[in-house]
Amino acid sequence: MLFAVTIEDKPGMGATRRAVRAAHIEWLEKHREMLVLAGPIMDGEGNSIGSVRVIEAPDRAAVEALTEGDPFAKAGCFGRVSINPYRIVFKDGAKAE
């Protein structure tokens, strides 16, 4: 099952995010089989202020556990996390259904 995960960082977490980024990337590598899509949300100046992910997992509990294990979460970066079932309709310019 696919889940869309939208994460908004707490204000002022840029330095913390930069300090933990290497651990975060290593963590993503360990869980790459679950990642359909993952990347940062950027502000107008190009600074990361959160993340968007599409995760393949058996259930919401698995996505919650995955998200809670993120080094960014453990460092206190996350202000708001939204997890919702997701369905791909278009991919790479073509209808996917």
UniProtKB/TrEMBL annotation:
InterPro entries: Dimeric_a/b-barrel (IPR011008), Sec-metab_biosynth-assoc (IPR051807), YCII (IPR005545). Signal peptide: none annotated. It comes from the Bacteria. Pfam families: YCII. Residues 1-85 form the YCII-related domain. Gene3D superfamilies: Dimeric alpha+beta barrel (3.30.70.1060). Belongs to the YciI family. This is YciI family protein. It comes from Neoroseomonas oryzicola.
